[in-house]
Amino acid sequence: MRRRIEDFRRAFKALSRVSPGAAEGFSGFMDAILAGGALDVKTKELIALATAVAVGCKPCIAVWVQRSLAAGATRDEILEAACVAVLMGGVPALTRMVEVEEALDEFAWKPSI
User: Fold this and answer.
1) Is residue 113 part of a domain?
2) I want to staple 62 with a disulfide (CB 3.0 to 4.6 A). Which of 1, 56, 58, 96 is the partner?
3) Contact predicate 40/81, CB 8 Å
4) Is 112 within the bounds of a domain?
């Protein structure tokens, strides 16, 4: 799972090299979207995780399990959010539950990116 987070970071660094303005804009966009508002930060992190499961972004699953833990989500909340993704994503999303559990097993002891 840590390798997947490093993959995500490498991809973002590549974007930063090729298009620094786009990387900066994307980072600002993420910060704005994930800030507390009508939905609290934990809920938004869980939505992002469910979306990652539904679309099959393995590095994103690792990142958002870790971010959800950092936002105070429990193992049960994370697994339930992933189950909602299975509802929307079907069997392909179901197969990614393994990724969620692996990330939980690896990151539950240290919930930070």
Assistant:
1) no
2) 1
3) no
4) no
25 within a domain of the structure (yes/no): yes
Which residue has 């980072």 as its token pair? 27
We report the CATH number of the domain holding residue 43 as 1.20.1290.10
Locate 104 and state its tokens.
């939980």
In angstroms, the CA 40 to CA 20 distance is: 29
Domains contained in the chain, number: 1
Residue 12 lies in a domain: yes
In the chain, alpha helices (H): 2-18, 20-34, 41-55, 58-70, 75-95, 97-107
Using 50, 70 and 90 to split pLDDT, how confident is the model at 110? Answer: low
| Residue 67 belongs to domain spanning | 2-107
Task: State both tokens at 109.
Answer: 């002891």
Provide the whole-model pTM: 0.86
Q: For the segment 30-66, what is each residue's pLDDT rounded down to a tens digit?
A: 999 999 999 999 999 999 999 999 999 999 999 999 9
